[in-house]
């Protein structure tokens, strides 16, 4: 899916990525400077630049690692909770989302990042687009594996419900957004 996160090669590089990831998600990308990241990680700006090249590349690594972790979580979740093809496997993506997003009140890191980076040539934009493309493709594939007619259209619609639920839950403050989207998705799959 996304370009593999650059191996930070050192414990300091790993601390930088861990620290930056938490700060970017909690405070926003533009609000966090390299001085703060280096200080919080117990390193220097030079070490940050040696490991990641630039703040922009560090942001791209943060997003790529988040995508990789989500995909790993989702893959494991589906294998455990819905291992066989069928509508329940498609719906299980929403269950996984609900579980994963529990306690993450700032919502989708990719939507948040795009709000700050969109319309620029920032390397993080490619990672954001890859994540959204991956999830859309995943829904299309899962719908096809379930034997539901017109998987391209139905999978695309399921993906829109998934994306909308994330925004409705966080930005819209709708507590039941994941459950409502799952119920709508179940009706879509049954139609």
From TrEMBL:
The keyword Transferase does not apply. Keywords: DNA-binding, Transcription, Transcription regulation. Residues 10-70 form the HTH tetR-type domain. InterPro entries: Homeodomain-like_sf, HTH_TetR, Tet_transcr_reg_TetR-rel_C_sf. Pfam families: TetR_N. It comes from Nocardioides baculatus. The keyword Transmembrane helix does not apply. Residues 33-52 bind DNA. This is TetR/AcrR family transcriptional regulator. It comes from the Bacteria.
């Amino acid at each position: 899916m996304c370009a593999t996160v650059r191996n930070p090669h050192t414990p300091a590089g790993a601390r930088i990525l861990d620290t930056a990831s938490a700060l970017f998600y909690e405070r926003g990308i533009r609000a966090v400077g390299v001085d703060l990241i280096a200080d919080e990680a117990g390193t220097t700006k030079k070490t940050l630049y040696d490991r990641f090249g630039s703040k922009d590349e560090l942001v791209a690594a943060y997003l790529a690692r988040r995508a990789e972790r989500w995909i790993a979580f989702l893959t494991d979740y589906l294998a455990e909770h819905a291992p066989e093809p069928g509508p329940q496997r498609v719906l299980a993506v929403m269950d996984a989302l609900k579980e994963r997003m529990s306690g993450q009140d700032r919502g989708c890191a990719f939507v948040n990042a795009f709000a700050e980076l969109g319309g620029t040539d920032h390397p993080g934009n490619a990672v954001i687009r890859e994540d959204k493309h991956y999830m859309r493709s995943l829904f299309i594939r899962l719908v096809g594996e379930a034997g539901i007619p017109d998987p391209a259209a139905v999978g695309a619609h399921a993906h829109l419900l998934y994306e909308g639920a994330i925004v409705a839950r966080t930005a819209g403050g709708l507590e039941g957004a994941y459950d409502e989207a799952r119920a709508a998705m179940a009706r879509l799959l049954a139609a």
